[in-house]
Amino acid sequence: MSNPPLNITIHLACSLDGIIAKSNNDIAWMETSSSYENGSDLSPEQIAGFLSSIDCYVMGSKTYEHAMALAVSYGWAYGDTPVVVLSSRNLPKINDKVTIVSGELAALTHGLQASQYKNVWVVGGALLAQSFLREKLADQLRLSIIPIVLGDGLALFQQVAELPLQLQELRAGKNGIVDICYKIGK
């Protein structure tokens, strides 16, 4: 019996100029006071249904450490969904759903497919997302564009060659955040 097809989505929030974090790693700019009267918000049921479709999250070590720090005040954002952290460092596991791995991305994606995951989300950081894009291992790119221009910081698309994209979905929220989903050409 063959494994189900694996769909890898890169999802990141960024400024309009493609910055995902300021140079000091500050992300307070992601809280927006912007509003857009014609925007639409997802219902709690839509959000819950959407999140339940994700089989596994993949993140780098810095994103994981940031998520652990936020978990102290807000709880673990990824619930019971498995999380794979790519790191060569020995990091503490926040729970038994977290797996720390090192190695090549191609081997990681093979392992994810062998685990029979269908919908895997890469949620940070920029270097990991860039690696998935360079190695053509991602199927979708989903961006939440925060209504701000930062001018400097960690850019999402550094060291990424020309990348053909096909628009699949576009939604503007009442908070002025624009969610864009592209299919990545291979």
Which range best describes the helical content: under 10%, 10-25%, 25-40%, 40-55%, 55-70% or over 70%? 10-25%
The number of distinct helices, counting runs of at least 4 residues, comes to 4
In the CATH classification, which architecture applies?
3-Layer(aba) Sandwich
CATH topology: Dihydrofolate Reductase, subunit A
How are strands sequenced across the largest beta sheet?
A: 5-4-3-6-1-7-10-9
Distance between the termini: 26 Å
Report on the architecture of this protein.
The protein is α/β, with parallel strands linked by helices and 186 residues long. It has one domain: Dihydrofolate Reductase, subunit A, CATH 3.40.430. The chain has four helices and ten strands. It has helices spanning 44-52, 61-74, 105-114, 126-134, and strands at 7-15, 19-21, 56-60, 83-86, 98-101, 119-124, 140-146, 154-155, 165-172, 178-184. The chain has an eight-stranded mixed beta sheet. The chain is globular.
